[in-house]
Structures are given as structure tokens and as C-alpha cells.
């Protein structure tokens, strides 16, 4: 049972990651932000996308938030954590 739940979360994360990365890229191109807050932005966008994705899955709300957080950090956040973060996004 637990393996099935984690497998669902990881599959949902895989689906959400490109969506979250694209949304963060749009924000980066339209708004001038300091690069050091981009990982937090990515996490927040991932949580938001995960929370509003209820029509597409029957997973619990908490599991959708976990998938969104993983997608946010995996899609953009982890890259930005190790990349040079000085300057602004535009």
C-alpha cells in the first residue's frame, strides 16, 4: 500500500515538473526578481500547482502538495540552489 502511494506521488511529480518549470520560467522572463529567491518561488509555484490539480487525480490533498513540492524543487529549485544566484532574473 505505501509503495503504491509513493509511486503515485512520484508519477504525479513527473507530470507536474515540466509544468512548474515552465511557469517559473514565465515569471522569470516577465518580472525582475533577485535570483536568490527563485528556489522559493519554484517551491511555492509547485505547491500551488499541486494543490489545484484536484481534477486530474484522486490523491489526497497532502499527497498532491508533496508532489507539487517535489516538482518545484526538482524542476527548477535544485538547479537554482547550486547555480550562481547573483543578480536578477531578467
Spatial separation of the terminal alpha carbons = 45 Å
Structural class: mainly alpha
Q: What's the total number of strands?
A: 0
Number of helices: 3
Radius of gyration: 14 Å
Q: Which regions contain 5 or more consecutive residues with pLDDT less than 50?
A: none
Q: Beta-strand level of the residues, as a percent range?
A: under 5%
* Average predicted confidence as pLDDT: 84
Percent of residues in helices comes to: over 70%
Overall 3D form: elongated
Secondary-structure element string: HHH
Tell me the major beta sheet: none
How would you portray this structure in words?
Helix 1 crosses helix 2. It is built from three helices and no strands. The radius of gyration is 14 Å and the shape is elongated. It starts with a helix and ends in an 8-residue tail after the last helix. The chain has helices spanning 2-30, 38-51, 61-82.
Topology of this protein?
Layout: H1 2-30, H2 38-51, H3 61-82
Keywords:
90 residues, mainly alpha, 3 helices
Would you summarize the structure shown here?
The chain is mainly α and 90 residues long. The protein has helices spanning 2-30, 38-51, 61-82. The relative contact order is 0.24.
Amino acid at each position: 500500500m505505501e509503495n503504491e502511494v509513493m509511486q503515485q506521488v512520484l508519477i504525479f511529480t513527473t507530470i507536474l515538473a515540466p509544468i512548474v518549470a515552465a511557469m517559473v520560467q514565465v515569471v522569470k522572463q516577465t518580472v525582475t526578481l533577485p535570483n536568490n529567491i527563485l528556489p522559493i518561488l519554484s517551491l511555492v509555484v509547485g505547491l500551488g500547482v499541486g494543490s489545484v490539480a484536484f481534477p486530474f487525480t484522486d490523491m489526497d490533498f497532502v499527497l498532491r502538495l508533496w508532489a507539487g513540492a517535489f516538482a518545484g524543487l526538482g524542476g527548477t529549485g535544485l538547479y537554482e540552489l547550486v547555480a550562481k544566484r547573483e543578480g536578477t532574473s531578467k
